[in-house]
Amino acid sequence: MRRISRRRLLGGAVLLGAGATGLTSLTACGNGGGSGSGSGSNLRFAWWGNPDRDRRTQAAVDQFVARADRGVDTEPSNWDDYWSRLATQISGGNPPDLMQMDYQYIAEYAGRGALLELDDYVPDPLDLSAVPEEAVENGRIGGTLYGITMGYNTFAMMKNLQVIRDAGVDEPDHTLTWSEFAELCREIGNNTPSGVFGTQNAMGSKETLECWLHQRGKALFTADGQLGYDPADLEEWFEFWQELAETGGAVDMETTSEALPDLSDWEVPSGRGAFNFHWSNIYPAFVDVSADEIGIGMYPQGDGAGAQPGQYYKASMLLSIPSAADDPDAAAELLQALVLDAEIAAELGFERGVPSSEEVREVLRPDASDEELASLEYVEFVEDKVGEVPPPPPEAAGRLDDQLIFFAEEAGFGRMSIPDAVDAYFQEATNILG
Fold first, then answer.
1. 10-residue averages of pLDDT along the chain (434 residues)
2. What does the alpha-carbon distance between residue 294 and residue 433 come to, in Å, rounded to a whole number?
3. How many domains, the chain?
4. If residue 107 lies in a helix (H) or strand (E), which one and from where to where?
5. Predicted TM-score (pTM) of this structure
6. How large is the angle between the packed helices 231-246 and 178-191, nearest 10 degrees?
7. Is 391 a domain residue?
8. What DSSP character marks residue 177?
């Protein structure tokens, strides 16, 4: 049986907001009734989330309803139910007027003609001047705008500062390269008790590999949905982590594969390692489950003078209007309120990542928690260090994630040589991608 690592299980769930909420529908209307207030039928707004997101989103919608001449029926659900229900609604010609969209699927939905082109709504009512262009680009497919980024994040390396201090080394900054990172991790492993390592084993981590590839001018996928790198790249990546594990700098593959999926069992929160790779919006969660002081910083940089930026701004989620929406103009007004109206969008807080609008961020900044503020400041710090947004992944990307983990484990356990594991992965990828 192919094992899926805790990073696959937990990383996707946290980032995508999965997790059953126990809610299948919830109606929010300006007058508390089933029909809402104002003229015309109610707008319908659907999203996936969790109890905290549902509460925050409901509060924002309530504010919109209170000031607009239109009621809104809200339809929150968990991740799996959301997409199955949305597919049924769209195929049946009964989609919501406004819906939450994920970067993984926006190209697929746009390609099928299911999403409304939003360029005609810019700049009125969608004035995107306060949104970083890198964040706006997350919603463009083939040069056409199909989604507006609600919040965004970027790769972030979590750091257990106590482990770093105990090892007698300095906390690394944003100039750290991969070769320096390897040396640092080995030094931490050598200077700490048995069972404490420099870093997690990221051999099968898609996000970490993606950053490393970008620094070399490559990508996980091309614009036409094929792999954007060569077997030699993956072979070098596997060798980097295998050597780091064998020399005590990274956790061995057996420990990695058997670890619990709970975030508290990761290397940084548990104190068993100095570094973990994740996304910036998960930093507060690391702090919440850690007894030690936790820092946040960039992934290591590419070695050599020609290295390119590896990180980019990724939409944690977007808002899109179905092409078959009953009232797209009114849906655009609701979209504007939820993303760009400082008073209404502030109700959403940082739960969906750093808010896209600078005006919304400034409203939230004074009352942000220390962890939220650190995450916000980090995302702002890397603004001049991020690269272009990569093409959206193909529909089969999730299956390839699983295959990457599987063959990383095969190589890490020594059941296959690294060249054989890489060849097998590329064969699987060719079959999956067609």
1. 34 34 32 39 95 95 93 95 96 97 92 96 96 92 95 96 98 98 98 97 97 97 94 98 97 86 91 96 93 98 94 95 96 97 95 92 95 95 94 88 96 97 97 92
2. 39
3. 2
4. helix 103-111
5. 0.84
6. 20
7. no
8. B
